[in-house]
Design goal:
This protein has 12 helices and 8 strands. By secondary structure, it is an alpha/beta fold. It is globular.
């Protein structure tokens, strides 16, 4: 039984006052806390403010949006998984399409980051997803297969991949208000589960959580979560407002 995970990706947004407001306003029932995991991934500069503001809400785990694969060294501007762990992080997003698109990250980079996060005891949330062009050219399956193979399954020999999380985020649905239909999302999440199962075995694939991301909102979360291979959401814009994130985390079954 996979526990649903809803992770908020604040991207390069927010400030200390916003963190305090969010933490103040975020209230969720004990029933939800017991059956769903939740995380917020703010910019690095807001992590200590987050820890202070959300001290009384340990059920909201802290996450990061990126990490380097090295543990330390001359990598100006980078942060290592060990540093994130020390800062109180539980998880870290890697391979987000914005990192792939604007910072030239490829599957091999994402795979090194995933391995380094696992080594540091963090939960990697590995993102994959096709562009609109790729989908319209009938290449969705090929793109997803290549990304899952290169980003995740290149580490099949590690033997500890059950803890990772894979996020399916169609690039055309990110920040566009255009959500994939629940059937489209299920089709790809089901494909990802099959790819994982073929290489890692059914037991590992059954344990790995697969999230959907792309314009998730309080009013479409229930429908997405009704699908068998969707185990939660990676939420951008709607995670910046406590009321929206509460509505998503508290979706009706
Ligand atoms: C994201 O960037 O991970 C994302 C899913 O964004 P949004 O929810 O705003 O589409």
């Amino acid at each position: 039984m996979r526990m649903p995970l809803i992770a908020g990706n604040w991207k390069m947004n927010g400030d200390v006052a916003g963190v305090e407001k969010f933490a103040d306003e975020f209230e969720i029932s004990q029933d939800i806390i017991e059956k769903r995991q939740m995380a917020i991934c703010p910019p690095l500069t807001l992590m200590s403010a987050w820890r202070a503001a959300a001290e009384s809400k340990p059920h909201i785990k802290l996450g990061a949006q990126n990490a380097h694969w090295k543990s330390s060294g001359a990598y100006t501007g980078e942060v290592s998984p060990g540093m994130l762990k020390e800062a109180g992080c539980w998880c870290c997003i890697v391979g987000h399409s914005e990192r792939r698109q604007y910072f030239g990250e490829n599957d091999a980079d994402v795979n090194k980051k995933m391995n380094a996060l696992l080594d540091a005891g963090l939960v990697p949330i590995v993102c994959v997803g096709e562009t609109l062009e790729e989908r319209e050219a009938g290449k969705m399956e090929q793109v997803i297969t290549t990304q899952v193979s290169g980003s995740v399954l290149a580490s099949a020999d590690r033997g500890d991949l059950s803890v990772i999380v894979v996020a399916y985020e169609p690039v055309w649905a990110i920040g566009t208000g255009k959500t994939a239909t629940s059937d489209q999302a299920q089709e790809v999440c089901g494909l990802i589960r099959k790819l994982l199962s073929d290489k890692l075995g059914a037991a590992s694939a059954d344990a790995i959580r697969i999230l959907y991301g792309g314009s998730v909102k309080p009013d479409n979360m229930s429908e997405l979560m009704s699908k068998p291979d969707i185990d939660g959401g990676l939420v951008g814009g709607a995670s910046l407002k406590a009321s929206d994130f509460m509505g998503i985390v508290g979706y009706k079954e």
